Known about the structure:
Strands 4, 5, 8, 9, 10, 11, 12, 13 and 14 form a 9-stranded mixed beta sheet that branches. Strands 1-2-3 form a 3-stranded mixed beta sheet, with helices on one face. It has a two-stranded antiparallel ribbon with strand order 6-7. It has about 350 residues and is an alpha/beta fold. It folds into 2 domains: about 90 residues, GMP Synthetase, Chain A, domain 3; about 260 residues, Rossmann fold, CATH 3.40.50.300. Helix content is about 35%, strand content about 25%. It has 11 helices and 14 strands. The protein is elongated, with a radius of gyration of 23 Å. Helix 4 packs across helix 11 and helix 6 runs parallel beside helix 7. It starts with a helix and ends with a helix. The protein binds adenosine-5'-triphosphate and magnesium ion.
Amino acid sequence: MSVNKDQVIEALKQVKDPELNKSLVELGMIKDVEIAGSNVRVTVALTMAGCPLKDKIKSDVKAAVSKLPGVDQVSVVLTTMTSAERAKLFGQEPSEMEGMKGVKNVIAIASGKGGVGKSTVSVNLAAALSHKGFKVGILDADMHGPDIPIMLGIKERPVGSKGMLFPLEKYGIKMMSTGVLAGEGTPIVWRGPLVNKAIKEFLGHVAWGDLDFLIVDLPPGTGDAPLTVATTIPIKGVIIVTTPQKVALSDVRRSVGLFLKHDIPILGIVENMSYLKVPGSEEVMDIFGSGGGEKVAKAFKLPLLAKIPIEPEIRKGGDEGKPVALEENEKSSAFYELAEKVMDILEKKSQVQKDKTTG
Ligand SMILES: Nc1ncnc2c1ncn2[C@@H]1O[C@H](COP(=O)(O)OP(=O)(O)OP(=O)(O)O)[C@@H](O)[C@H]1O
Ligand SMILES: [Mg+2]
């Protein structure tokens, strides 16, 4: 005898949302139950994208339904509630960019190409600004390779409540990673409109609190992913990271074009792995050629914000989860110069804005 839908629903009434402590059925989280012989598929709508409890909910549903006689296989499909459903559940839906309300300046770090040091620049700029006394957060929006938690030495997973996710904190820097959108052991497949929807929901529901700066490590390239993030968050400016090689530079051109096309302001260019200081001498070696950053900067009339040397301590800091720019010294000075430039530009910008509104 095969199982029927009512029996499955009955069994699911025993499964509670661990945070809200009510049954998934009562909460309206069970979207669909499909039965084919002894196979059951349950679709569960989570209260938020990237819900930290999703793995637990999934295994609880599986366990409850598996117990029923006549059931061989249970699969669980996870989706996310719509805004309207969430509003019904919580009485009030957090407005779309609720979590961003207290964030003053969002700075996105982009690159036309992977592996040029985008994440390294992101964490070290965050560390330098934090060292200067600002309240800083960092969002790892590069879901293909969420490296920021590693670079900050963060292993915990964030917790959530009432549809909001709380960032983790290390060295006084708040951090959230799109890595939490992927289930444990689930390969991350990112394509099309589903990605955009997930990113948007996710971005709106991180409770950053008050921040002077939010640094966003964008996905590399000039495709959909960086653009979705960049057009979803209210960005003050983008910093484009490149290395001096020719290939990297043609990618930068495309990247600059992409942001300009969408009226997203670019603060300037950072040339990473610019040169190598020869230990024990004043000599400097241009490993990847020289003048590349200057050329692009000039071509697009953008400032060259910093030239960051190839420095073993920079790589080590990333690998060990202790960014070199947590301290201001000779090895980290390029990131402090970058931080100064960024502050200058933003100050000038806000002055222009002020002049516009008062004058
Ligand atoms: N200036 C530097 N000196 C020495 N090592 C560096 C420097 N910049 C980056 N690295 C190292 O190069 C590697 C790539 O850097 P990073 O991960 O920041 O690049 P990315 O652009 O974020 O790459 P991806 O596209 O994979 O996300 C890392 O191992 C990092 O530690
Ligand atoms: Mg990276």
